[in-house]
Amino acid sequence: MPVNIKENTPLSNYTIYKIGGPARFFVEVKNLGEIKEATEWAQKQNLSFFIIGAGSNVLVSDKGFNGLAIHIAGGEVRVEGEKLMADAGVMMARAVIESAKVGLSGFEWGIGIPGTIGGSVRGNAGCFGHEMKDVVESVKIFDSSKATSHKLQVTGCAFGYRDSVFKKHPEWIILSAILALKKGDAGEIQKKIKEITTERTQKQDIGTKSCGCIFKNVSWTRKDINKEKLLSKLPELEKLKSKPNIPASFLIDSASLKGKKVGKVFVSPKHANYFVNEGGATAEEVVMLIALVKDAVRRKFGILLEEEIQYIGF
Fold this sequence. Notes:
By secondary structure, the protein is α+β, with helices and mostly antiparallel strands. It folds into three domains: about 5-70, Uridine Diphospho-n-acetylenolpyruvylglucosamine Reductase, domain 2 (2-Layer Sandwich), CATH 3.30.43; about 75-200, 2-Layer Sandwich (Uridine Diphospho-n-acetylenolpyruvylglucosamine Reductase, domain 3); about 205-310, UDP-N-acetylenolpyruvoylglucosamine reductase, C-terminal domain (Uridine Diphospho-n-acetylenolpyruvylglucosamine Reductase, domain 1), CATH 3.90.78. About 25% of the residues lie in helices and about 25% in strands. The chain has eight helices and 20 strands. The chain has helices at about 30-45, 90-100, 115-120, 165-170, 185-205, 225-235, 250-255, 285-300; strands at about 5-10, 20-30, 50, 60, 65-70, 75-80, 85, 105, 125, 130, 135-145, 150-155, 170-180, 180-185, 220, 245, 260, 265, 275, 310.
């Protein structure tokens, strides 16, 4: 066993939710060599593994994870011209601040994402009308099934709404990403970052034990959505018809679910797509609240909400 692999490590310590049982094995890695060593060890033991970054968009089972949890932490940020290179374990906020320091614009919105570069690329994270696909030029990956690393251009990432090729290939581990930005006015960039931070603090539950948005917003173009029928039946959706999506928070709020509680977890009164752990909540309680909310929204609107969060160990 490699010296840095630990046993029975509580994953609740590595998620923003502060929920989840222990990983049977756990390792913290900082570079390609350590990632390679960890994945090879897991393969020899016939164990599954998963990558955890900031732990912001995951729900870990109360039973934990019966394999190897690989925690990618930290890394470097480098700037060359109008390109920003960031390792997978770098927090989004740090990458935004580093780009702002050198007057690079186009990534200010990233200050609103509480995860790492790697996790954000994997989930095509976004907010305020922007997504990672808008700035990613290429992604360096390690293919654990072949023990080789290579670079994927943005076209090979198959980015979709909160989706990417990496979700279909768990054996591909994101090592770093190159973001294509543009020169901007340093003062304007700082001003924009402050505005986004203020707006996000006002509208979302920042600093709470919450994993971010539970559900994806509902695209009007989804195959099961009949726009005309919905608008005729539900006039409250009229104001959203020119938008690309129906916000999940709007549907949850309209179903009078703000403040709804199961055990120690509740639907945020501030942003209905955030479920907050008031302290001591279990994954089972979160799952029960998710089911309750999905059922209520389906009954009222005939729309099935789809989870954005990743389930681990279920």
